[in-house]
Amino acid sequence: xxxxxxxxxxxxxxxxxxxxxxxxxxxxxxxxxxxxxxxxxxxxxxxxxxxxxxxxxxxxxxxxxxxxxxxxxxxxxxxxxxxxxxxxxxxxxxxxxxxxxxxxxxxxxxxxxxxxxxxxxxxxxxxxxxxxxxxxxxxxxxxxxxxxxxxxxxxxxxxxxxxxxxxxxxxxxxxxxxxxxxxxxxxxxxxxxxxxxxxxxxxxxxxxxxxxxxxxxxxxxxxxxxxxxxxxxxxxxxxxxxxxxxxxxxxxxxxxxxxxxxxxxxxxxxxxxxxxxxxxxxxxxxxxxxxxxxxxxxxxxxxxxxxxxxxxxxxxxxxxxxxxxxxxxxxxxxxxxxxxxxxxxxxxxxxxxxxxxxxxxxxxxxxxxxxxxxxxxxxxxxxxxxxxxxxxxxxxxxxxxxxxxxxxxxxxxxxxxxxxxxxxxxxxxxxxxxxxxxxxxxxxxxxxxxxxxxxxxxxxxxxxxxxxxxxxxxxxxxxxxx
Length: 482
Fold this sequence. Notes:
mainly beta, 58% strand
Protein backbone atom coordinates (compact mmCIF):
# COMPACT_ATOMS: atom_id res chain seq x y z
CA UNK A 1 0.00 0.00 0.00
CA UNK A 2 2.77 2.42 0.88
CA UNK A 3 4.52 1.65 -2.39
CA UNK A 4 1.31 2.36 -4.26
CA UNK A 5 0.85 5.71 -2.51
CA UNK A 6 4.43 6.69 -3.27
CA UNK A 7 4.05 5.68 -6.89
CA UNK A 8 0.83 7.66 -7.17
CA UNK A 9 2.41 10.79 -5.66
CA UNK A 10 5.42 10.43 -7.94
CA UNK A 11 3.17 10.07 -10.98
CA UNK A 12 1.14 13.09 -9.90
CA UNK A 13 4.24 15.25 -9.51
CA UNK A 14 5.65 14.12 -12.85
CA UNK A 15 2.39 14.91 -14.58
CA UNK A 16 1.97 18.26 -12.88
CA UNK A 17 5.52 19.40 -13.59
CA UNK A 18 6.62 17.73 -16.80
CA UNK A 19 3.29 17.30 -18.48
CA UNK A 20 2.37 20.99 -18.27
CA UNK A 21 5.68 22.74 -17.88
CA UNK A 22 5.42 24.34 -21.31
CA UNK A 23 2.75 26.92 -22.08
CA UNK A 24 2.13 29.07 -25.12
CA UNK A 25 -0.24 31.95 -25.77
CA UNK A 26 -0.72 34.05 -28.87
CA UNK A 27 2.47 36.06 -28.37
CA UNK A 28 4.13 34.56 -25.24
CA UNK A 29 5.78 31.23 -24.47
CA UNK A 30 7.12 29.86 -21.19
CA UNK A 31 8.70 26.76 -19.71
CA UNK A 32 8.44 26.51 -15.94
CA UNK A 33 10.34 24.05 -13.79
CA UNK A 34 11.36 26.76 -11.32
CA UNK A 35 13.73 26.86 -9.44
CA UNK A 36 15.50 24.30 -11.66
CA UNK A 37 14.59 25.93 -14.95
CA UNK A 38 12.39 28.82 -16.07
CA UNK A 39 11.99 30.43 -19.48
CA UNK A 40 9.69 33.15 -20.75
CA UNK A 41 9.65 34.75 -24.19
CA UNK A 42 7.51 37.67 -25.36
CA UNK A 43 7.39 37.77 -29.13
CA UNK A 44 5.78 41.20 -29.45
CA UNK A 45 8.28 42.90 -27.11
CA UNK A 46 11.21 40.85 -28.38
CA UNK A 47 12.30 39.92 -24.85
CA UNK A 48 13.46 36.64 -23.29
CA UNK A 49 14.10 35.70 -19.66
CA UNK A 50 15.72 32.50 -18.46
CA UNK A 51 16.67 31.15 -15.03
CA UNK A 52 18.52 28.01 -13.98
CA UNK A 53 19.01 27.08 -10.32
CA UNK A 54 17.71 30.52 -9.39
CA UNK A 55 19.22 32.89 -8.31
CA UNK A 56 22.61 31.57 -9.47
CA UNK A 57 22.19 31.48 -13.26
CA UNK A 58 19.97 33.77 -15.33
CA UNK A 59 19.81 35.68 -18.59
CA UNK A 60 17.70 38.54 -19.96
CA UNK A 61 17.51 39.66 -23.56
CA UNK A 62 15.74 42.59 -25.21
CA UNK A 63 16.19 44.48 -28.49
CA UNK A 64 18.46 46.95 -26.65
CA UNK A 65 20.61 44.78 -24.38
CA UNK A 66 21.58 41.31 -23.19
CA UNK A 67 22.60 40.21 -19.67
CA UNK A 68 23.93 36.84 -18.52
CA UNK A 69 24.64 36.15 -14.84
CA UNK A 70 26.36 33.35 -12.97
CA UNK A 71 26.08 34.76 -9.45
CA UNK A 72 28.14 35.42 -7.42
CA UNK A 73 30.98 34.78 -9.89
CA UNK A 74 30.20 37.10 -12.79
CA UNK A 75 27.64 39.12 -14.78
CA UNK A 76 28.02 39.88 -18.50
CA UNK A 77 26.04 42.78 -20.02
CA UNK A 78 25.95 44.00 -23.60
CA UNK A 79 24.23 47.01 -25.15
CA UNK A 80 23.67 46.05 -28.76
CA UNK A 81 23.39 49.47 -30.42
CA UNK A 82 26.26 51.12 -28.52
CA UNK A 83 28.49 48.02 -28.89
CA UNK A 84 29.15 48.30 -25.17
CA UNK A 85 30.18 45.19 -23.24
CA UNK A 86 30.62 45.01 -19.47
CA UNK A 87 31.76 42.13 -17.27
CA UNK A 88 31.64 42.23 -13.48
CA UNK A 89 33.30 39.31 -11.69
CA UNK A 90 33.65 38.69 -7.97
CA UNK A 91 32.30 42.21 -7.56
CA UNK A 92 33.74 44.64 -6.50
CA UNK A 93 37.10 42.97 -7.19
CA UNK A 94 36.84 42.53 -10.96
CA UNK A 95 35.41 44.80 -13.68
CA UNK A 96 35.84 45.01 -17.45
CA UNK A 97 34.18 47.45 -19.88
CA UNK A 98 34.63 47.64 -23.63
CA UNK A 99 33.47 50.00 -26.38
CA UNK A 100 34.90 50.50 -29.90
CA UNK A 101 36.90 53.47 -28.56
CA UNK A 102 37.87 52.36 -25.06
CA UNK A 103 38.62 49.29 -22.94
CA UNK A 104 39.04 49.20 -19.15
CA UNK A 105 40.01 46.38 -16.79
CA UNK A 106 40.16 46.59 -12.99
CA UNK A 107 41.28 43.96 -10.48
CA UNK A 108 40.70 45.94 -7.31
CA UNK A 109 42.80 47.11 -5.60
CA UNK A 110 45.98 46.01 -7.39
CA UNK A 111 45.67 46.04 -11.17
CA UNK A 112 44.25 48.65 -13.60
CA UNK A 113 44.42 48.63 -17.41
CA UNK A 114 43.09 51.16 -19.95
CA UNK A 115 43.21 51.12 -23.73
CA UNK A 116 41.70 53.96 -25.72
CA UNK A 117 41.73 55.77 -29.06
CA UNK A 118 42.32 59.52 -29.16
CA UNK A 119 40.39 61.83 -31.52
CA UNK A 120 43.40 61.96 -33.87
CA UNK A 121 43.34 58.15 -34.20
CA UNK A 122 46.31 57.44 -31.90
CA UNK A 123 45.90 54.27 -29.82
CA UNK A 124 47.23 54.36 -26.26
CA UNK A 125 47.20 52.00 -23.30
CA UNK A 126 48.35 52.23 -19.71
CA UNK A 127 48.49 49.79 -16.82
CA UNK A 128 49.18 49.84 -13.09
CA UNK A 129 50.09 46.96 -10.79
CA UNK A 130 50.12 48.55 -7.35
CA UNK A 131 52.42 49.36 -5.74
CA UNK A 132 55.24 48.31 -8.08
CA UNK A 133 54.62 48.56 -11.83
CA UNK A 134 53.42 51.53 -13.90
CA UNK A 135 53.48 51.54 -17.69
CA UNK A 136 52.03 52.97 -20.90
CA UNK A 137 52.23 52.26 -24.63
CA UNK A 138 51.46 54.57 -27.55
CA UNK A 139 51.51 54.29 -31.34
CA UNK A 140 53.63 57.46 -31.40
CA UNK A 141 56.26 55.96 -29.10
CA UNK A 142 55.76 58.24 -26.06
CA UNK A 143 55.06 55.40 -23.63
CA UNK A 144 56.67 55.02 -20.22
CA UNK A 145 57.58 52.41 -17.60
CA UNK A 146 58.39 52.56 -13.90
CA UNK A 147 59.23 49.91 -11.30
CA UNK A 148 58.72 51.44 -7.87
CA UNK A 149 60.91 52.16 -5.94
CA UNK A 150 63.85 51.19 -8.20
CA UNK A 151 63.28 53.69 -10.98
CA UNK A 152 61.44 54.77 -14.09
CA UNK A 153 59.46 57.52 -15.77
CA UNK A 154 55.75 58.47 -15.60
CA UNK A 155 53.95 60.84 -17.96
CA UNK A 156 51.04 63.05 -16.90
CA UNK A 157 51.05 61.98 -13.25
CA UNK A 158 50.12 64.02 -10.16
CA UNK A 159 49.48 67.12 -12.25
CA UNK A 160 52.96 66.94 -13.86
CA UNK A 161 53.89 66.42 -17.49
CA UNK A 162 56.64 64.01 -16.46
CA UNK A 163 57.86 62.33 -13.26
CA UNK A 164 61.19 60.43 -13.04
CA UNK A 165 62.73 58.71 -10.01
CA UNK A 166 65.61 56.45 -8.99
CA UNK A 167 65.68 54.46 -5.74
CA UNK A 168 62.85 56.65 -4.44
CA UNK A 169 62.99 58.62 -2.13
CA UNK A 170 66.71 58.94 -2.92
CA UNK A 171 66.14 60.89 -6.17
CA UNK A 172 63.21 62.23 -8.25
CA UNK A 173 62.56 65.05 -10.70
CA UNK A 174 59.40 66.44 -12.33
CA UNK A 175 58.52 68.73 -15.21
CA UNK A 176 55.42 70.79 -15.96
CA UNK A 177 55.82 72.84 -19.13
CA UNK A 178 59.01 74.86 -18.51
CA UNK A 179 59.03 74.37 -14.71
CA UNK A 180 61.52 71.71 -13.47
CA UNK A 181 61.87 70.31 -9.94
CA UNK A 182 64.56 68.05 -8.40
CA UNK A 183 64.25 66.08 -5.14
CA UNK A 184 66.91 64.33 -3.07
CA UNK A 185 65.81 62.24 -0.10
CA UNK A 186 62.26 63.43 -0.72
CA UNK A 187 60.79 65.46 0.95
CA UNK A 188 63.95 66.77 2.64
CA UNK A 189 65.89 68.45 -0.21
CA UNK A 190 64.37 70.01 -3.32
CA UNK A 191 65.18 72.65 -5.89
CA UNK A 192 63.03 74.02 -8.74
CA UNK A 193 63.26 76.65 -11.44
CA UNK A 194 61.30 77.89 -14.42
CA UNK A 195 60.47 81.03 -16.35
CA UNK A 196 60.14 83.70 -13.65
CA UNK A 197 59.67 81.08 -10.93
CA UNK A 198 61.72 78.93 -8.58
CA UNK A 199 61.85 77.19 -5.20
CA UNK A 200 64.24 75.53 -2.75
CA UNK A 201 63.60 73.52 0.40
CA UNK A 202 65.46 71.90 3.29
CA UNK A 203 62.45 70.37 5.00
CA UNK A 204 61.38 70.89 7.77
CA UNK A 205 63.94 73.64 8.58
CA UNK A 206 63.18 76.18 5.85
CA UNK A 207 61.85 76.59 2.31
CA UNK A 208 60.98 79.30 -0.19
CA UNK A 209 59.07 79.39 -3.49
CA UNK A 210 58.08 82.23 -5.81
CA UNK A 211 56.60 83.19 -9.16
CA UNK A 212 57.23 86.74 -10.24
CA UNK A 213 54.04 88.79 -10.07
CA UNK A 214 52.00 85.81 -8.79
CA UNK A 215 53.07 84.51 -5.37
CA UNK A 216 55.79 84.17 -2.74
CA UNK A 217 55.87 81.42 -0.07
CA UNK A 218 58.28 80.90 2.83
CA UNK A 219 58.29 78.47 5.76
CA UNK A 220 60.64 78.03 8.74
CA UNK A 221 60.42 75.00 11.05
CA UNK A 222 57.35 73.72 9.17
CA UNK A 223 54.48 73.86 10.13
CA UNK A 224 55.12 76.40 12.87
CA UNK A 225 56.05 79.45 10.78
CA UNK A 226 54.64 80.10 7.32
CA UNK A 227 54.34 83.36 5.37
CA UNK A 228 52.70 83.71 1.95
CA UNK A 229 51.63 86.30 -0.59
CA UNK A 230 49.29 85.13 -3.36
CA UNK A 231 47.11 86.49 -6.14
CA UNK A 232 49.51 89.40 -6.70
CA UNK A 233 48.42 89.96 -10.30
CA UNK A 234 44.67 89.96 -9.53
CA UNK A 235 42.23 92.38 -7.91
CA UNK A 236 42.22 90.49 -4.58
CA UNK A 237 45.87 89.88 -3.52
CA UNK A 238 46.22 88.15 -0.17
CA UNK A 239 48.82 87.89 2.59
CA UNK A 240 48.89 85.17 5.23
CA UNK A 241 51.03 84.45 8.27
CA UNK A 242 51.02 81.42 10.58
CA UNK A 243 52.96 81.25 13.85
CA UNK A 244 51.38 78.10 15.23
CA UNK A 245 49.88 77.66 17.71
CA UNK A 246 49.99 81.29 18.86
CA UNK A 247 48.73 83.46 16.02
CA UNK A 248 47.70 83.36 12.35
CA UNK A 249 46.05 85.71 9.90
CA UNK A 250 45.00 85.99 6.27
CA UNK A 251 44.29 89.42 4.82
CA UNK A 252 43.08 90.69 1.46
CA UNK A 253 40.96 93.63 0.27
CA UNK A 254 37.85 91.46 0.48
CA UNK A 255 38.59 89.26 3.49
CA UNK A 256 40.27 89.19 6.93
CA UNK A 257 40.76 86.12 9.10
CA UNK A 258 42.47 86.12 12.52
CA UNK A 259 43.28 83.08 14.68
CA UNK A 260 44.63 83.09 18.26
CA UNK A 261 45.80 79.86 19.86
CA UNK A 262 44.18 77.96 16.98
CA UNK A 263 41.78 76.16 17.08
CA UNK A 264 40.51 77.97 20.19
CA UNK A 265 39.58 81.28 18.55
CA UNK A 266 39.11 82.15 14.86
CA UNK A 267 37.36 85.19 13.42
CA UNK A 268 36.56 85.91 9.76
CA UNK A 269 35.27 89.14 8.24
CA UNK A 270 34.54 88.47 4.58
CA UNK A 271 33.64 91.83 3.05
CA UNK A 272 33.46 90.47 -0.48
CA UNK A 273 30.67 88.00 0.38
CA UNK A 274 29.34 90.17 3.26
CA UNK A 275 29.41 87.81 6.24
CA UNK A 276 31.23 87.32 9.58
CA UNK A 277 32.10 84.05 11.29
CA UNK A 278 33.41 83.05 14.74
CA UNK A 279 34.81 79.67 15.94
CA UNK A 280 35.18 79.24 19.76
CA UNK A 281 36.85 76.72 19.48
CA UNK A 282 36.71 74.96 16.12
CA UNK A 283 34.80 72.71 15.48
CA UNK A 284 32.74 72.77 18.70
CA UNK A 285 31.09 76.18 18.51
CA UNK A 286 30.64 78.46 15.52
CA UNK A 287 28.42 81.38 14.59
CA UNK A 288 27.90 82.91 11.14
CA UNK A 289 26.01 86.07 10.23
CA UNK A 290 25.71 87.74 6.85
CA UNK A 291 23.45 89.15 4.17
CA UNK A 292 22.60 85.78 2.60
CA UNK A 293 23.91 83.31 5.19
CA UNK A 294 23.39 82.32 8.79
CA UNK A 295 24.79 79.55 10.93
CA UNK A 296 25.02 78.27 14.51
CA UNK A 297 26.73 75.05 15.60
CA UNK A 298 27.32 73.34 18.94
CA UNK A 299 29.06 70.23 17.70
CA UNK A 300 28.19 67.35 17.96
CA UNK A 301 24.76 68.20 19.45
CA UNK A 302 23.28 70.30 16.67
CA UNK A 303 24.16 72.65 13.83
CA UNK A 304 22.37 74.83 11.30
CA UNK A 305 23.74 76.65 8.26
CA UNK A 306 22.03 78.62 5.50
CA UNK A 307 23.75 80.04 2.44
CA UNK A 308 21.51 81.59 -0.18
CA UNK A 309 18.91 78.99 -1.15
CA UNK A 310 20.75 76.13 0.56
CA UNK A 311 20.12 74.98 4.17
CA UNK A 312 21.82 72.27 6.19
CA UNK A 313 20.98 70.96 9.67
CA UNK A 314 22.36 68.15 11.84
CA UNK A 315 21.65 66.81 15.31
CA UNK A 316 23.83 64.42 17.32
CA UNK A 317 26.36 64.29 14.49
CA UNK A 318 26.65 62.10 12.48
CA UNK A 319 23.29 60.46 13.32
CA UNK A 320 20.87 62.96 11.77
CA UNK A 321 21.35 65.19 8.71
CA UNK A 322 18.97 67.26 6.62
CA UNK A 323 19.58 69.41 3.57
CA UNK A 324 17.40 71.66 1.42
CA UNK A 325 18.44 73.40 -1.79
CA UNK A 326 16.57 75.45 -4.39
CA UNK A 327 18.36 76.31 -7.63
CA UNK A 328 15.26 77.79 -9.25
CA UNK A 329 14.73 74.96 -11.72
CA UNK A 330 14.84 72.14 -9.16
CA UNK A 331 14.27 71.86 -5.41
CA UNK A 332 16.24 69.20 -3.49
CA UNK A 333 15.60 67.79 -0.02
CA UNK A 334 17.53 65.14 1.87
CA UNK A 335 17.03 63.57 5.31
CA UNK A 336 19.35 60.97 6.81
CA UNK A 337 19.12 59.09 10.11
CA UNK A 338 22.19 56.87 10.18
CA UNK A 339 22.17 54.01 9.55
CA UNK A 340 18.43 53.22 9.34
CA UNK A 341 16.77 55.95 7.23
CA UNK A 342 17.68 57.79 4.04
CA UNK A 343 15.32 60.02 2.06
CA UNK A 344 15.92 62.19 -1.03
CA UNK A 345 13.43 64.21 -3.07
CA UNK A 346 13.81 66.40 -6.15
CA UNK A 347 11.00 68.62 -7.43
CA UNK A 348 10.67 70.53 -10.72
CA UNK A 349 7.90 73.10 -9.97
CA UNK A 350 7.56 74.42 -13.52
CA UNK A 351 7.13 70.88 -14.90
CA UNK A 352 4.99 69.74 -11.95
CA UNK A 353 7.18 66.64 -11.62
CA UNK A 354 9.21 65.08 -8.82
CA UNK A 355 11.52 62.16 -8.05
CA UNK A 356 12.23 60.53 -4.71
CA UNK A 357 14.30 57.85 -3.03
CA UNK A 358 13.69 56.30 0.40
CA UNK A 359 15.60 53.59 2.26
CA UNK A 360 14.61 52.07 5.61
CA UNK A 361 17.62 49.91 6.38
CA UNK A 362 17.66 46.94 6.16
CA UNK A 363 13.93 46.51 5.45
CA UNK A 364 13.13 48.29 2.20
CA UNK A 365 14.12 50.75 -0.49
CA UNK A 366 11.73 52.77 -2.64
CA UNK A 367 12.58 54.81 -5.72
CA UNK A 368 10.36 56.93 -7.97
CA UNK A 369 11.79 58.58 -11.06
CA UNK A 370 10.92 61.84 -12.74
CA UNK A 371 9.21 59.87 -15.52
CA UNK A 372 6.88 58.14 -13.02
CA UNK A 373 8.73 54.81 -12.91
CA UNK A 374 8.66 53.09 -9.48
CA UNK A 375 10.70 50.41 -7.76
CA UNK A 376 10.16 48.90 -4.29
CA UNK A 377 12.46 46.25 -2.79
CA UNK A 378 12.15 44.23 0.44
CA UNK A 379 14.73 43.43 1.95
CA UNK A 380 17.40 46.07 1.29
CA UNK A 381 20.51 45.49 3.44
CA UNK A 382 22.80 47.90 1.54
CA UNK A 383 23.15 51.22 3.35
CA UNK A 384 24.28 53.00 0.16
CA UNK A 385 23.03 53.35 -3.42
CA UNK A 386 24.87 51.17 -5.93
CA UNK A 387 22.32 50.03 -8.51
CA UNK A 388 24.85 48.86 -11.10
CA UNK A 389 27.29 47.21 -8.68
CA UNK A 390 26.40 45.43 -5.43
CA UNK A 391 22.65 45.56 -6.07
CA UNK A 392 22.99 44.15 -9.58
CA UNK A 393 25.26 41.31 -8.44
CA UNK A 394 23.81 40.29 -5.08
CA UNK A 395 20.27 41.65 -4.55
CA UNK A 396 18.71 38.46 -5.99
CA UNK A 397 19.94 36.54 -2.92
CA UNK A 398 18.25 38.75 -0.33
CA UNK A 399 15.24 40.39 -2.07
CA UNK A 400 12.03 38.91 -0.63
CA UNK A 401 9.69 41.13 -2.64
CA UNK A 402 10.11 43.51 -5.56
CA UNK A 403 7.63 45.78 -7.29
CA UNK A 404 8.30 47.83 -10.44
CA UNK A 405 6.25 50.17 -12.59
CA UNK A 406 7.73 51.59 -15.77
CA UNK A 407 7.00 54.97 -17.32
CA UNK A 408 4.30 53.46 -19.58
CA UNK A 409 2.39 52.21 -16.51
CA UNK A 410 3.24 48.51 -16.86
CA UNK A 411 3.51 46.80 -13.45
CA UNK A 412 5.71 43.88 -12.43
CA UNK A 413 6.12 42.23 -9.02
CA UNK A 414 7.70 39.09 -7.61
CA UNK A 415 8.15 37.72 -4.11
CA UNK A 416 9.75 34.95 -2.08
CA UNK A 417 12.53 34.48 -4.60
CA UNK A 418 10.05 34.43 -7.52
CA UNK A 419 7.62 31.91 -6.01
CA UNK A 420 5.07 34.66 -6.59
CA UNK A 421 4.93 36.59 -9.88
CA UNK A 422 2.51 39.25 -11.04
CA UNK A 423 2.54 41.30 -14.23
CA UNK A 424 0.02 43.76 -15.60
CA UNK A 425 0.47 45.68 -18.85
CA UNK A 426 -1.89 47.54 -21.15
CA UNK A 427 -2.47 44.34 -23.17
CA UNK A 428 -1.91 41.50 -20.73
CA UNK A 429 -2.28 40.35 -17.14
CA UNK A 430 -0.63 37.35 -15.47
CA UNK A 431 -0.51 36.03 -11.91
CA UNK A 432 1.33 32.92 -10.73
CA UNK A 433 2.14 31.05 -7.55
CA UNK A 434 4.78 28.62 -8.75
CA UNK A 435 3.35 25.09 -9.27
CA UNK A 436 0.10 26.03 -7.44
CA UNK A 437 -1.92 28.14 -9.88
CA UNK A 438 -1.37 30.42 -12.83
CA UNK A 439 -3.56 32.96 -14.62
CA UNK A 440 -2.77 34.62 -17.96
CA UNK A 441 -4.79 37.03 -20.07
CA UNK A 442 -3.87 38.73 -23.34
CA UNK A 443 -6.35 41.30 -24.56
CA UNK A 444 -9.95 40.27 -23.91
CA UNK A 445 -10.02 37.09 -25.97
CA UNK A 446 -7.12 34.94 -24.75
CA UNK A 447 -7.29 33.55 -21.21
CA UNK A 448 -5.60 30.64 -19.48
CA UNK A 449 -6.09 29.42 -15.90
CA UNK A 450 -4.29 26.41 -14.44
CA UNK A 451 -4.42 24.78 -11.00
CA UNK A 452 -1.60 22.49 -9.84
CA UNK A 453 0.01 22.70 -13.27
CA UNK A 454 -2.89 21.07 -15.08
CA UNK A 455 -4.88 19.18 -12.46
CA UNK A 456 -7.51 21.59 -13.68
CA UNK A 457 -6.96 23.96 -16.60
CA UNK A 458 -9.16 26.28 -18.63
CA UNK A 459 -8.15 27.97 -21.89
CA UNK A 460 -9.89 30.40 -24.18
CA UNK A 461 -8.35 31.61 -27.42
CA UNK A 462 -10.69 33.78 -29.41
CA UNK A 463 -13.60 31.44 -30.27
CA UNK A 464 -11.91 28.26 -29.03
CA UNK A 465 -12.27 27.00 -25.48
CA UNK A 466 -10.85 23.93 -23.76
CA UNK A 467 -10.87 22.24 -20.36
CA UNK A 468 -8.38 19.77 -18.95
CA UNK A 469 -8.73 17.54 -15.86
CA UNK A 470 -6.13 15.35 -14.15
CA UNK A 471 -3.42 16.48 -16.60
CA UNK A 472 -4.48 14.18 -19.47
CA UNK A 473 -8.23 14.50 -19.92
CA UNK A 474 -8.91 17.25 -22.48
CA UNK A 475 -12.33 18.54 -23.49
CA UNK A 476 -12.06 21.01 -26.38
CA UNK A 477 -15.14 23.03 -27.28
CA UNK A 478 -15.52 25.20 -30.38
CA UNK A 479 -18.02 28.04 -30.56
CA UNK A 480 -19.77 28.60 -33.84
CA UNK A 481 -20.79 32.20 -33.43
CA UNK A 482 -19.02 35.56 -32.98
